[in-house]
Design goal:
Layout (H helix, E strand, L loop, with lengths): L1 E4 L2 E4 L8 H8 L18 E4 L2 E4 L12 E3 L7 H8 L9 H16 L13 H7 L10 H11 L3
Parallel strand pairs: 1-5
Antiparallel strand pairs: 1-2, 3-4, 3-5
Amino acid sequence: MDLVVNGTEHSVELDPRTTLLDALRDHLGLTGAKKGCDHGQCGACTVLLDGRRVNSCLILTVTLSESEITTIEGVDHPVQEKFLEHDGFQCGYCTPGQICSAVGMLDEAAKGWPSAVGDPELTDAEIRERMSGNLCRCGAYPNMVPAIREAAGR
């Protein structure tokens, strides 16, 4: 099967039950996306699929032949610099997923997609709501929120 990951086409032979996360880590050597819960509950495996954020542990790779996949290794976005400036990480395990999710979330907000809070402005509460699918066991949220806010230009 052919996959386009970070702008590069890869041919891989996979079991049809292989998740995107396992294909990335075990077959392509892209270890930025982490295996946290392996149940889609923590967000450590978040990547961008055709520009939208997804939990790669829940997607079967066999369904992605026409898709563009972007992992943390392929992200080039101001949110990365802002995470560094604001010390938006501690142990770093969740950071790739947090950054991929923030990039996707900022794009969703720019397109006017609603959230549960429903605030059209990216307030701190809105950022927290939109990032709620990504967990940080270290509790670096107080530094992530201003990093994301600044990356959004606010």
